[in-house]
Every structure is written in structure tokens, then in C-alpha cells.
Amino acid sequence: MSWIFLREFISNWQMTGAIAPSSARLARKMMEHAEVKNAQCILELGPGTGPFTEAIHSCMPDGARYLGLELNTVFVDRLRQRFPTMQFEAKAVQEYDFDEFLKPGEMFDTVVSGLPWTAFPTELQIAILDHALTRLKPGGRLATFAYAGFHLLPTGKHFRELLQSRVNLLGRSDIVWLNVLPAFIYQTTKI
Ligand SMILES: C[S@@+](CC[C@H](N)C(=O)[O-])C[C@H]1O[C@@H](n2cnc3c(N)ncnc32)[C@H](O)[C@@H]1O
Fold first, then answer.
1. What class is the 2-12+20-190 domain?
2. So what's the pLDDT on residue 13?
3. Which of 6, 118, 136, 169 could be cross-linked to 140 through a Cys-Cys bond (beta carbons 3.0 to 4.6 Å apart)?
4. CB within 6 Å of ligand 1 — which residues?
5. Is residue 144 packed enough to be buried (19+ CB in 10 Å), middle (13-18) or exposed (0-12)?
6. Residue 19 CA to ligand 1 centre (angstroms)
7. How far away, in angstroms, is 137 Cα from ligand 1 center?
């Protein structure tokens, strides 16, 4: 399915933010850091063609609820066909009304992010992060990845600082070399 991803990257590189989908190895590591196997309510940001979604699907507990928010309608159509028991909305994260999904008093246990944060302007990073975090349980997990090396650039450093101003940054994973490009995960919890 990578050619679809590449085509979407060519038509909107800034929103797609990567030339290839994440690898299964990075996806497995994301599941560990997001503790998806213990989650009852899961939010995925920017599932794209679904590498993290596939991993979530295989390790989420029976009866757990899942919401995937993806801007690109081509990806959403495919995700709906591929994972008919999971819920996808073709919406920008920062504009989605979570009351449409969450039951009264319900919050997400974990957030798995596939968003290309460093391709976004700061205002958009803040809008997305703050909007998603308002519905994450205190102590809930947020796992997000960064491309190794890019985290040393000013945009990468800036995003890390933003993350640290909003969540507890517990640490980062080892680099997953088997990924285009090699990447690591920031493991965080809601303050
Ligand atoms: C770097 S791709 C990652 C896709 C997939 N998670 C992966 O790891 O292969 C980022 C995805 O986020 C989506 N996206 C970008 N901005 C978004 C936003 N504000 N709300 C929802 N999805 C967004 C893009 O359309 C794209 O599919």
C-alpha cells in the first residue's frame, strides 16, 4: 500500500509528513509505550494507511473502544474497509468534537500519534496537542514518534520542549532502525 502513501505525500507533503508508512517493528514498539493492551478507550491521531492501527487491532483488549482521526479521505475510506469494527472519522484532530465519540464522563486511556509534528507550525502543534490532551485521563499514555537525527534540528528540539511543557516525558525508546526513516518513540503521560 506504500504507493498510495507516496502519491498522497506528493499531493500534500506537509500534511502527510512522511514518504513511507511506519514499519511493523515501530508499530509494535508504539503499542508497548502506549500500553494499548491495557487500554479500554484508544485514540489514534493520523492513522494514514494503518500500520499502527493494525497493531492496535491485534493487541487491544476485547470490548475496548477505538477512534482514529485522519484528515485524508482516501486513507479513511481504505481504513474503514480494512478495519470495519473500528471507528474512523475524516476530521482534523484539532476540530473534532470528542462528545460525538466519548460517552458522558468517559476519557481516553491512551493516545497513539502518527502525526508529522515537526512539519506543522507551532500554533497547529499546540492546537492538536491541547485538544487531544483534554480528553486523555490523568496518567494516561501518549506515544509519539520522531525521526532520529531530525530531533536535533531546531524544529525537533522545539517540539520536544512543547511536549515537555504539556506532559510528563518519561523517556524515549531505542531507535528502530528498520523504518523509513529510523525513528524512536517519546513515551509520555498526562500530567
Ligand atoms: C506521517 S503520516 C503517518 C501515518 C501512519 N500513522 C504511519 O505511521 O505510517 C501522518 C498522517 O497524519 C494525517 N494528518 C496530518 N494532519 C492531521 C490532522 N490535523 N488531523 C488528523 N490527521 C492528520 C496525514 O493525513 C497522514 O495520514
1. alpha beta
2. 77
3. 136
4. 15-18, 21-22, 46-48, 51-52, 69-72, 75, 92-94, 114-116, 128
5. buried
6. 12
7. 23
Q: Residue 29: its pLDDT value, please?
A: 97
pLDDT of residue 19: 76
CA of 59 to the centre of ligand 1 (A): 21
Model confidence pLDDT, tens digit, residues 172-189:
999 999 999 999 999 999
Contact, 189 vs 167, CB < 8 A? yes
State if pTM tops 0.90. yes
**Dist. CA 35–CA 39, nearest whole Å:** 7
**Range of lowest pLDDT (10-14, 21-25, 36-40, 98-102):** 10-14
Under DSSP, is residue 141 helix (H, G, I), strand (E, B) or coil? strand
Q: Is a pLDDT exceeding 60 seen at residue 129?
A: yes
What pLDDT, on the 0 to 100 scale, is given for residue 133? Answer: 98
Closest residue CA from atom 20 of ligand 1: 92
Q: What is the separation, in whole angstroms, between the first and last Cα of the chain?
A: 37
For cell 523504518, what's the residue?
179
